[in-house]
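HOLO CASE FILE
Compound: thymidine-5'-diphospho-beta-D-xylose
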Amino acid sequence: MNIIVTGGAGFIGGNFIHYVIKKHPDDRIVCLDKLTYAGNLSTLAPVMESSAFRFVRADICDREAVYRLFEEEYPDVVVNFAAESHVDRSIEDPGVFLQTNIMGTATLMDACRKYGIRRYHQVSTDEVYGDLPLDRPDLFFTEETPIHTSSPYSSSKASADLLALAYHRTYGLPVTISRCSNNYGPYHFPEKLIPLMIANALNDKPLPVYGQGLNVRDWLYVEDHCRAVDLIIREGKDGEVYNVGGHNEMRNIDIVKLICRELGKSESLITYVADRKGHDMRYAIDPAKIHRELGWLPETSFADGIRKTIRWYLENREWWETIISGEYRNYYENMYGNR
Ligand code: NAD
Ligand code: TDX
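Model generated. C-alpha cells follow.
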C-alpha cells in the first residue's frame, strides 16, 4: 500500500510511521507535514533514509501542494493526523485551529475525490463528545454519544468529523474516523501534561496543576492507538466511527504524583495554578465496538507504559531539551508566567 500520513512529524503520526514501517515492510509511506512548532524532523530520523519512506514539507491547506503530491504518489490510503492539537493554545487563539483542522481536512478530502482513494482516515478525538460528570462513573462515550464540544480545539475536530461523514454520504468517499482518548508515550511534545511534568520534574521546576487536579483523563499508550488506526485502515468499514480507549481513567493529580515517585522527586514541586477555561471534567471511552468488530484491545498497561515513557525521556534528553530551549520558552512564559 502507498500511504500518505499527514502530521507524521508530530507525536502520534511519528509513532504511527515507525509502527507501520516495522509491521508492514512492503508498504510505502509519504509523510506530509508543515513542520509547525509541534513538528520535529528528529522524530523521523530513524526512517528518513529508508527507501520505503518519503518526507514532503507542505501545509494540508495548500491545495496546489496537496494536489501535486497526489499526482506524484496516487496514494491508496490517506491517514490525517495533521492538526493543531493543544487545547490551551486553541483558547488563546482559535483561528489557526479552524484553518488547519477544518479547511485542511476538506482540502485533503477534495484531493481524495479528485484523484481517487481506497480509504481516507480521519484521526479524531474523544473530546468531540464533551465531558462526563465525575459523580457518574457508570457513563462512557460510545459512538452514539452526541457531539457536544467545549473548546475551540474540540469544536474544530468535531467540524472535521462532520465534514468527513458528509463527504462519505454525499460523494461516497470511503471515509473512516477514529476517536481516541488521551495518548502518552515517546515523542510527546512537552506542552502536554505527561511530558511537561516529566521535563519539569527532571529540571526541578514547578509542576503546574490546573485547578485542583481532579479532572479525569482516559490514558492510552500511543502504540496501542497506532495499532488501532492501522487495523481500521485495513479492515474497518467505510463510513464508520470507531472509539479507541483502554479503560484507564486517572486523575491529573495522581499522574503528577506518580511521575514524582518514579523520578524520586518531591511532591513539593506541585504547584496549583488557575484552571483552564471551560475545562472538561472527565473523559472515558467505551471501546466495545472496535473490540467486537476488529478484535482490538490495548496491550500496554498504564504501569508499564508510564515506566517505558519515563525511561524514553531519560534516554532521549536531547530530543526534548532542544525543544524547550527554543521558541517554547516564550510560549511557557506566556502560558504559565501569570497563572
Ligand atoms: P502534534 O501536535 O504532536 O502533531 C501535529 C503534527 O501536525 C505536527 O507534526 C505539525 O507540524 C503537523 N501540522 C500542523 N498543522 C499542519 C498543517 N496545516 N499542515 C501539515 N501539517 C501540519 O499532535 P498529536 O498529539 O500527534 O495528534 C495527532 C492527531 O491525533 C491530531 O489530529 C489530534 O487531534 C489527534 N488526537 C490526539 C490525541 C493526543 O492525546 N495527543 C488524542 C486523540 C486524538
Ligand atoms: O500544565 C498542565 N497542567 C494541567 O493540569 C497541562 C498542560 C495540563 N493539565 C491538565 C489539563 C487536562 O485536564 O492535564 C489534563 C491533560 O491536559 P493535556 O495534556 O493538555 O491534554 P487534553 O487537554 O486532555 O487533550 C489531549 O487529549 C485529547 C490532547 O492534547 C488532544 O490533542 C487530544 O485530542
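CASE NOTES: The domain at 2-249+278-330 is CATH 3.40.50.720 (Rossmann fold). The chain has one domain: 2-249+278-330.
CLOSED: yes
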